[in-house]
Amino acid sequence: MKDHTVTAFDIELKQLADSVLDMGRLARQSCTLAAASLSERGPGLAGEVKAIDAQVDGLQRTIEEAGILLIARRQPVAFDLREVVCALRIANDLERIGDLASNIAQRAAVLESTAAPQPLTAGLESLSVLVIERLDEALEIFTQRNAARAAEIWASDVSVDDLYTSIFRGILTYMMEDPRHISACAQLVFVGKNLERIGDHVSNIAESVYYAATGEQLDETRRTGERSAEVEAITAG
Amino acid sequence: MKDHTVTAFDIELKQLADSVLDMGRLARQSCTLAAASLSERGPGLAGEVKAIDAQVDGLQRTIEEAGILLIARRQPVAFDLREVVCALRIANDLERIGDLASNIAQRAAVLESTAAPQPLTAGLESLSVLVIERLDEALEIFTQRNAARAAEIWASDVSVDDLYTSIFRGILTYMMEDPRHISACAQLVFVGKNLERIGDHVSNIAESVYYAATGEQLDETRRTGERSAEVEAITAG
């Protein structure tokens, strides 16, 4: 009887994790299209990302419902319960990633191509490449339940923050040099911030994997190190 | 036996809701201090908001744990289950509100008082007043489980979006008129955006109350109406 219950739980948990991975693939696709929208502008890509985002949102609701029913019906404890909570948390982060990607594509669509300086969009594309690589790694460690690599990915979010901070400063310099760039640059500031926030959600995913595997939370104080109040303000929130 | 179970569930649910309200009061206090930091600058308030934010984060973890245990132990269905899910979702939104308030205070702390034009900070203070009023209403309807008012609060988020859009455009105009304002104005753009995002989380709280009371989701298409792609881009994400 015990074995039967455990197996049924395992099957349902596997289905839940598979749905999270489906959601992860869709969220990743949104990020790739959002990054592409920085060089190929026009409303087309924004519509495509929005359509994927609707699917991501739908999956999140399905996962939340399935996860809660799984907890109610199987009453998992300890490791098993953490696995379900981990799936729910990751679905939450992927839903936010989908929203942020959709917003990037919306902002890119309203940029006039002449007004967005190419070196800035190139910088943002590098940031998107870094963030998407990290998303791939986070989804991989979720599949492998690899706590050690989860802690590494989580700790290396500073690489995203550093690149974003330098891009942010570059955008301000462009604004100061030529006020005609200000409107376009203001949109690019948000594109950069959204990419940095996607990076934060990737870190959260790594944090959830670590928690599921170990039952412990990663210690925030170990990560940030010494930073100026200005950099703290730029990269937080 | 049935009555005993129902009563135990009701007591635990009441405790959960009380913790959510405690969290709401702390998040509100963070917002008030963050708004004050726009006129009384310096690192003091930022530290205070950060300390409150740590309490808010702690309460969120406690509520998540208590809510999940409540689902596992009592296996609520229908209305009762939605009540627990509603509490978990609201705790999630309040945690984000705490983060955003903390970031506003951090950004305000690094502004040089001479570089932040007073009309802009005054506009942001008006936006913060509107957002805090709405947070108060959302917490009140959570206490009353008032679905009709929840739908109203949710639908009237456009008032926050409209004020934010006009402030955003005002900030860009200041930047164009005097490039010396650009650094400070870039911080103010984020302060505005964070207030607008707090407004979005307030709407989410209203949406969760509506869902708990009715079992239905509010229909996004009924709210936004006709907007330009530019305004969509400014207010989304």
End-to-end distance of chain A:
49 Å
E-strand count of chain A: 0
Q: State which percent range the strand residues of chain A make up.
A: under 5%
Average pLDDT for all residues of chain A: 91
Percent helix of chain A: over 70%
Q: Which two chains have the most extensive interface, and how many residues on each? A: A-B, 40 and 41 residues
In this structure, how is the largest beta sheet of chain A organized? Answer: none
Low-confidence stretches of chain A: none
Envelope shape of chain A: globular
Alpha carbon gyration radius of chain A:
19 Å
Provide a count of the helices of chain A: 9
Order of helices and strands of chain A: HHHHHHHHH
Structural class of chain A: mainly alpha
Oligomer: homodimer
Keywords:
homodimer, 237 residues, mainly alpha, 9 helices
Structure description:
The structure is a homodimer of 237-residue chains. Chain A has 237 residues and is an all-alpha fold. Chain A is 84% helix and 0% strand. In chain A, helix 4 runs antiparallel to helix 6. The interface between A and B is large, with 40 and 41 residues.
Write the layout of secondary structure elements.
The structure is a homodimer.
Chain A: H1 2-36, H2 43-74, H3 78-110, H4 118-144, H5 147-155, H6 158-177, H7 182-214, H8 221-224, H9 229-235
Helix pairs in contact in A: 1-2, 1-3, 1-4, 2-3, 3-7, 4-5, 4-6, 4-7, 5-7, 6-7
